[in-house]
Amino acid sequence: MEELYVPPPKGECEERDWWHLEQGFWLHTFCWYQKKGKGLKLVNFYIAVHLENALGDREGRLLVSVDCCHHGTCHLHNEVEDSEHENRENIATLRSRSDVEMAYLTASSNVFGYAESVLHKMREAVSKDAEQA
Predict the structure, then answer these.
(1) Residue 62: CB partners within 8 Å, gap ≥ 6?
(2) Tens digit of each residue's pLDDT (9 = 90 or more) over 56-103
(3) Residue 4: inside a domain
(4) How many domains does the chain have?
(5) Which range marks the domain in which residue 65 is found?
């Protein structure tokens, strides 16, 4: 069986995080880097997507998260249906640190689609509940 990537302990890494508002969603991104040669290399990340609330602040509902913290995969969690993270949708298998960089690019470019899908399901459920009431 092929060995999967395991990120280094976060305490051995430099952490950076930032918020970004786009398309009505707040993205909160955490990246962990390690020094490699003359630069920093991405070794782990977590992206949380929150629905912008009526006040426009960052405390909106958490919809989805993407991480590569364990399991040897970059994966998506539907925070609305499964906040305990019992299930996940794999995005990429990680075998090396360079796989983390590729997974980050894939996840960050597709995260809006994931959030839109979850939001659509939420709205459908509310609509069905209203029809049945």
Answers:
(1) 48, 49, 50, 79, 80, 83
(2) 666 678 888 999 877 789 999 988 888 888 888 889 999 999 999 999
(3) no
(4) 1
(5) 10-132
